């Protein structure tokens, strides 16, 4: 019973596959078994490993993502989806999966390129710098999360591995430069000005924007995609570079009630980030103002067209 209570959605799906999914594939689609990839990747807290009891009220429960190459999808998808629909809807005391109006299509049978296209808007792995820049970071985090249980052909994993190699270095530098500018503007500049004016909506907005961009920058410094806002602070904790320390410091900042004391915490965070920029050889400026570091980071971009773009945009 304790194992059941502690099972995450990802563990649930993987065990469900080995107990029900895999035997079904071998029995009904044995000739195709070596061409079928299975796992759980995409939208949903369980794919990031962040699900809890609150998560289980919708779009959570036994379910599988099954990925097929284009020709196999045309031949097999209908019959395979029908067989998947006939699998048990409950497993080890969990289920059935309650799909919300906006949660349909998270599990089931997919054609590989169309699955990725739903997140990155391309039917191929990004090649051009502009292609990479147009994809939201959180979408890249979403389509590379979770776990692949089996992939005999390796076609699904080939996409995944190429995306997980992270942004081309010029794109990473462009985004880092932009984050430096945004962090300085919201935290080091506007927070104090909003406080002096008692503009409390703007004050809270700048604080939130500051934390958002700090976390995004730390992910870039770790060469990891940042998930969307709901999970970005939680995911920060596991990053090897600055993750644990800044997770704690940001928590401290957000739970403090004395606004005046927050100014020192903001500067502490910025000092930490500047030290890491220097450590990675991205800036040699002596300034404690992150705004002064953005252009230096951007100057290291090799592609001339990208290097000349507005440093604030990234």
Give a structural overview.
The chain is mostly helical. It has 2 domains: 2-164; 169-307. It contains 15 helices and 4 strands. It has helices spanning 2-6, 9-28, 45-48, 70-85, 112-120, 129-134, 137-142, 155-164, 169-197, 200-222, 229-236, 243-255, 259-279, 294-298, 304-307; strands at residues 37-40, 65-68, 108-111, 147-150. β2, α4 and β3 form a beta-alpha-beta unit. The longest helix has 29 residues, at 169-197. The mean pLDDT is 96.
Structural class: mainly alpha
Query: Gyration radius, to the nearest Å?
Result: 23 Å
Beta-strand share of residues: 5-15%
Order of helices and strands: HHEHEHEHHHEHHHHHHHH
Number of strands: 4
Record the strand order, biggest sheet: 3-2-1-4
Uncertain ranges: none
Number of domains: 2
| Number of separate helices | 15
Helix content: 55-70%
Fold topology:
Blueprint: H1 2-6, H2 9-28, E1 37-40, H3 45-48, E2 65-68, H4 70-85, E3 108-111, H5 112-120, H6 129-134, H7 137-142, E4 147-150, H8 155-164, H9 169-197, H10 200-222, H11 229-236, H12 243-255, H13 259-279, H14 294-298, H15 304-307
Parallel strand pairs: 2-3
Antiparallel strand pairs: 1-2, 1-4
Tell me briefly what this model is.
The protein is built from 15 helices and four strands. It has 314 residues and is mostly helical.
């Amino acid at each position: 019973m304790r194992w059941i209570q502690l099972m995450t959605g990802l563990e649930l799906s993987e065990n469900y596959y080995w107990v029900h999914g895999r035997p079904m594939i071998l029995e009904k689609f044995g000739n195709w078994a070596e061409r079928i990839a299975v796992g759980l990747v995409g939208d949903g807290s369980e794919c990031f490993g962040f699900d809890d009891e609150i998560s289980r009220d919708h779009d959570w429960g036994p379910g599988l993502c099954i990925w097929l190459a284009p020709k196999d999808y045309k031949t097999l998808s209908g019959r395979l989806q029908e067989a998947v629909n006939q699998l048990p809807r409950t497993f080890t005391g969990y289920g059935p999966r309650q799909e919300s109006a906006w949660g349909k299509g998270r599990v089931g049978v997919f054609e590989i390129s169309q699955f990725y296209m739903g997140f990155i808007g391309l039917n191929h792995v990004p090649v051009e710098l502009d292609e990479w820049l147009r994809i939201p970071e959180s979408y890249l985090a979403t389509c590379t999360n979770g776990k692949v249980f089996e992939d005999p052909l390796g076609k699904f994993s080939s996409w995944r591995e190429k995306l997980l190699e992270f942004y081309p270095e010029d794109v990473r530098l462009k985004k880092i430069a932009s984050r430096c500018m945004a962090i300085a503007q919201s935290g080091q500049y506007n927070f104090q000005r909003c406080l002096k004016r008692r503009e409390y909506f703007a004050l809270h907005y700048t604080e939130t924007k500051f934390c958002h961009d700090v976390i995004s920058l730390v992910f870039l410094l770790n060469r990891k995609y940042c998930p969307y806002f709901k999970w970005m602070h939680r995911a920060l904790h596991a990053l090897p570079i600055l993750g644990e320390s800044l997770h704690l410091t940001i928590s401290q900042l957000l739970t403090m009630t004395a606004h005046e004391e927050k100014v020192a915490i903001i500067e502490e965070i910025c000092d930490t980030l500047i030290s890491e920029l220097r450590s990675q050889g991205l800036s040699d400026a002596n300034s404690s103002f992150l705004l002064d570091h953005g252009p230096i980071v951007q100057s290291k971009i090799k592609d001339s067209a990208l290097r000349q773009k507005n440093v604030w945009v990234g």
